[in-house]
Amino acid sequence: MNTELLISPVPTLHPEDSGDKALALMEESNFTQLPVVDEDNYIALVSESDLMDWDNPGSALSGAGFLHFKPAISNSAHPFDAMRVAHDMHIAVLPVLDHEQKYLGSITRDDLLKYITEKSGIGTPGGIIVLEIAPRNYTLVEIARICENEDVIIMNTMVNPNENGMLEVTLKLNRSSLEAVVSSFERHSYHVKGVFGENSTDEDVTSKYNLLMNYINM
């Protein structure tokens, strides 16, 4: 799947629209950022804060000094790349351009979050196991084999270094009852740092939510 398939009906601004009109459209559409487009030429992404700080909101946007911010993603890029760009640039609306740099539409951060939740396995029923592993000992093949031996399928894997120089490997699994697979990991000398399954406490649920937020970098 590419980003073009996630394009949403995001309204656009024209260079001759006034700042006041732009603010009104943002309020009406519930977006704090909107692209400025002239036919199919993408000019800039304008934010509500730009407009609020502008001394001449009654003037056309073409005369503004802030039409220089142009984040965009190719229509052939993967949604994961789009999420990275949206996160790195702190934007909730990301314009999509074709190979000729023509404007095709925009995708929203909410739609990207929905895609990742639905397509990465995060939204499927099942528990989570977090392993802490030294980088030299990390092998996904062995981790997968241990899960398969317990008839457990890995739906999603996240690997992040922590402050101790270790890797935290987060496994989203297709089962909520994880006692057997946890025991198997421990028999193979893996350090199980966290388990979030059907018997999770309220504190575990909060931790699981925080893990998800770290994953999507929101």
Q: Mean pLDDT across all residues, rounded?
A: 88
Q: Based on helices, strands and strand pairing, what is the structural class?
A: alpha+beta
Using the alpha-carbon principal axes, give the shape.
elongated
Q: Compute the gyration radius: what is it?
A: 22 Å
CATH architecture of the largest domain: Roll
Distance between the termini: 22 Å
Task: Give, in spatial order, the strands making up the sheet with the most strands.
Answer: 7-8-6-9
Q: Provide a count of the helices.
A: 7
CATH level 3 topology of the largest domain: CBS-domain
Give helix % range: 25-40%
Poorly predicted regions: 199-206
Task: Give the strand tally.
Answer: 9
CATH class annotation of the largest domain: Alpha Beta
The named CATH superfamily of the largest domain: CBS-domain
Tell me which oligomeric state these chains represent.
single chain
Largest sheet: 4 strands, antiparallel
Q: What is the number of independent domains? A: 2
Strand content range: 15-25%
